[in-house]
Amino acid sequence: MASTQILLCIAILGSSLLLPTNAAVAADSPTPAPLDIESILVKGSQYGTFIKILKSTQVMTQLSSQLKNTFDGITVLAPTDNAFNNLKAGTLNGLTAQQQSELVLYHILPRYYSFSTFETTSNPVRTQASGNEGVYTVNVTSTSNQVNVSTGVNQVQVTNALRSDFPLAVYSLDKVMLPDELFGVKPPASAPALAPAVSEPKKKKVPATATPTTAAVPASSEAADATTSDAGLRRNVEWGFALACAFVGVLSLF
């Protein structure tokens, strides 16, 4: 009996030495690789423009950090290169660096959405973009096999999932979502109020002063005066000549 108990104890001790502990199992199990959004998009092979904007705006770095500390997860709505090519020429270049950041953050939802979650979500759905008017939102309509996202400017269909496991879902879009805050029709600016017109005091009419005029002498009168003057001169000459002749005649008598 004693020998049997001794053998049983030896067997139990040996099995405990051969079986790995929980700590050993945990140490030997591979550590899951950190989620890499860029690798997922690169594998999809048609998201080069979206990757470029994610990097230039530093949103890629922000998302990588966010994924390490998230409890709600993240959903990325990734437009294809063809979706960007279909934008009007100059659309992206016409945006400031801040507006490009808002555009790409508009395609990030701050929680994990599966296709089934989209069906039960309430509108409006918040995005990670924000501006002077607050957080940018979208409206989602979903059926069993299709999800549409409306921005107020355009409507975009969510096509297929590049990744769908919590905490990160990445879906492909056939169009770029255009936020109303950046691309919506802005109301015309109201014209500034005009100051009331000031009426000028009426000027009193001053009667025109009559300017004295010199009576014009008719040309015919001047000519008549000149003729009269010539005739008088001739008459005086004739009288003078007659008097001289008479004086000479008197002198001849003496």
UniProtKB/TrEMBL annotation:
The record's listing under InterPro entries reads: FAS1_dom_sf, FAS1_domain, FLA_A
Q: One short Pfam family name for this protein? A: Fasciclin
- Give the Low complexity compositional bias ranges: 207-225
The main place the protein resides is: membrane
**Gene Ontology biological process terms, A to Z:** plant-type secondary cell wall biogenesis
GO cellular component, as recorded = plasma membrane; side of membrane
Give positions of region: Disordered. 194-225
* UniProt superkingdom: Eukaryota
Every copy of the FAS1 domain together lies at: 34-177
- The signal peptide, as residue positions, is 1-23
Membrane topology of the entry? Lipid-anchor; GPI-anchor
Keywords tagged on the record: Cell membrane, Glycoprotein, GPI-anchor, Lipoprotein, Membrane, Proteoglycan, Signal
Name its cellular compartments: Cell membrane
- What role does this protein play? May be a cell surface adhesion protein.
Give the family this protein belongs to, as stated in its UniProt record.
Belongs to the fasciclin-like AGP family.
- Record's protein name: Fasciclin-like arabinogalactan family protein
Species whose genome carries this gene = Rhynchospora pubera
